[in-house]
Write a structure and sequence with these properties.
The chain is mainly α and about 170 residues long. The protein is about 70% helix and about 10% strand. Strand 2 and strand 3 form a beta hairpin. Helix 2 packs across helix 3. The protein is globular, with a radius of gyration of 17 Å.
């Protein structure tokens, strides 16, 4: 596949990823919008690693780790599409997207707006940027193609498991 084809595949995979990310973060993996009928839940935590990240007096590392992991692909995709950008400019979209999700959760009253989530998501994007940098050093000109193949397979698997989850809980 030519370079333009690889770029278009990366854009398509990014679009599917962002839709899936939106479903997870804003729609709480629900098959319908019934959760919006409930009383709005709005809270804001501006203390890093405090508030919602603390359960029974201890920091809930699993939520923080999941927030980091879920944004790693974002950093990878940005790096693939904007290879000429520097590191800070590549991190900015992950930060902006996470900030938008946190703000929308507050506006729609569908979750807690938390600085810890913003930090974790941004760190995940940065980790994805570093991961792609490492892969591009190891795989040279084959990095984009290899990541696209892995991402396409991963996308099919994640969508398949998600559909199973939705149908099993209907």
């Amino acid at each position: 596949m030519r370079q333009t084809g690889q770029r278009n595949l990366t854009k398509a995979l990014l679009a599917v990823y962002v839709i899936f990310l939106t479903w997870i973060i804003l729609f709480k993996m629900q098959p319908d919008l019934c959760f919006w009928r409930a009383e709005p839940y709005r809270s804001v935590n501006l203390i890093p690693f405090g508030g919602s990240a603390v359960i029974n007096g201890r920091i809930d590392m699993s939520e923080i780790i999941l927030n980091i992991l879920i944004f790693v692909p974002y950093g990878v995709y940005v790096s693939m599409l904007k290879d000429q950008w520097g590191f800070p400019k590549k991190v900015a979209p992950a930060f902006g997207t996470s900030l938008a999700f946190e703000a929308l959760q507050y506006v729609f009253g569908i979750g807690a707006t938390d600085i810890t989530d913003l930090l974790g998501n941004t760190l995940g994007g940065a980790a994805g940027i570093m991961l792609f940098w490492l892969l591009s050093k190891l795989l040279k000109e084959n990095a984009v193609k290899a990541v696209n193949v892995i991402a396409a397979l991963g996308t099919v698997i994640v969508i398949g498991f998600s559909l199973l989850l939705v149908f099993a809980n209907m």
